[in-house]
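Supplementary Methods. Inverse-folding protocol.

Structures were first reduced to a discrete structure-token string of length 310. This string, shown here, constituted the complete conditioning input.
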């Protein structure tokens, strides 16, 4: 069942409005609060009824009018999603992931393939550069594998580099991993080295982007806040100050997540050092990482063998 709470007609209105250009999370929620439901937005939005709403302009109205005439297309799109095993979860559904409600503007809709479980609340987000070094890739893979064997779900953003290493490490460790996609769920492509059977059994895909949306910077930034919200704890493996992973770190700090950053024995990336200066705990090895995650805070006085030497 693609939705556990909405009729097919209702769901088509949700998808149409949520997919409309110029309708980001804040605007989506403001519109639904003002009109009562996506169906009512599509039926009643006009220059007069939108007057006074933040961000309401001619471009927004035009996109809502266009969304209203795309409802039939959205019905067909929902059928495609159903055939792919994708479920659509609205923010007012009982099974909407609870951690996302902490965001100021949570996603209006989520497209989910696989089952997000209560056990996934016990999670560690692993983030870092898309241009990972061999050392960084190895560190992310080994950290994710060890955490997965210890029962943690690994959350990451499905980018190349550190994200890919984290997802692959989680699957290698026999644990669950959440792929937070920056593109539409119909554009997900499995990394060639990821075992398909394990991915189907242990992976869950999550996207708030319209199902056919391509990769865009806007989607990547939106993805980062979801990664942060779904991560009970966060590990920065290898980052530069302008990386998207630092945006994830900033959101995680605001949400009160226990944040850590890898401190290598030499040449630690500047983003890692900036995170440590901002309050992230430095971790030096997989053993210390597992200790910090289980303890939930407090700098270790027993420094283990360096990540560089593992």
């Amino acid at each position: 069942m693609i939705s556990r709470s909405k009729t097919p007609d209702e769901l088509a209105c949700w998808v149409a409005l949520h997919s409309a250009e110029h309708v980001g999370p804040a605007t989506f929620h403001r519109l639904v609060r003002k009109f009562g439901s996506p169906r009512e937005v599509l039926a009643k939005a006009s220059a007069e009824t939108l007057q006074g709403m933040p961000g309401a302009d001619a471009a927004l109205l035009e996109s809502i009018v266009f969304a209203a005439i795309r409802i039939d297309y959205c019905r067909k799109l929902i059928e495609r999603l159903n055939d792919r095993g994708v479920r659509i979860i609205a923010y007012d559904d009982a099974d909407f992931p609870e951690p996302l409600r902490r965001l100021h503007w949570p996603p209006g809709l989520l497209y989910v393939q696989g089952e997000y479980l209560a056990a996934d609340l016990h999670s560690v987000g692993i983030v870092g550069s898309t241009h990972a070094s061999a050392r960084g890739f190895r560190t992310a893979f080994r950290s994710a594998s060890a955490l997965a064997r210890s029962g943690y779900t690994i959350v990451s953003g499905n980018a190349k580099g550190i994200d890919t290493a984290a997802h692959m490490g989680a699957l290698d460790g026999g644990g669950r991993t959440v792929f937070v996609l920056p593109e539409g769920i119909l554009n997900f492509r499995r990394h060639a080295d990821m075992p398909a059977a394990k991915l189907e059994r242990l992976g869950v895909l999550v996207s708030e982007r319209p199902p056919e949306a391509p990769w865009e910077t806007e989607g990547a930034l939106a993805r980062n806040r979801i990664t942060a919200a779904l991560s009970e704890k966060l590990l920065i493996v290898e980052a530069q100050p302008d990386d998207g992973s630092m945006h994830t770190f900033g959101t995680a700090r605001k949400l009160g997540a226990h944040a850590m950053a890898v401190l290598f024995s030499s040449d630690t990336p500047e983003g890692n050092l900036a995170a440590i200066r901002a309050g992230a705990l430095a971790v030096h090895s997989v053993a210390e990482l597992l200790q910090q995650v289980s303890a939930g805070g407090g700098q270790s006085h027993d420094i283990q063998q360096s990540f560089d030497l593992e």
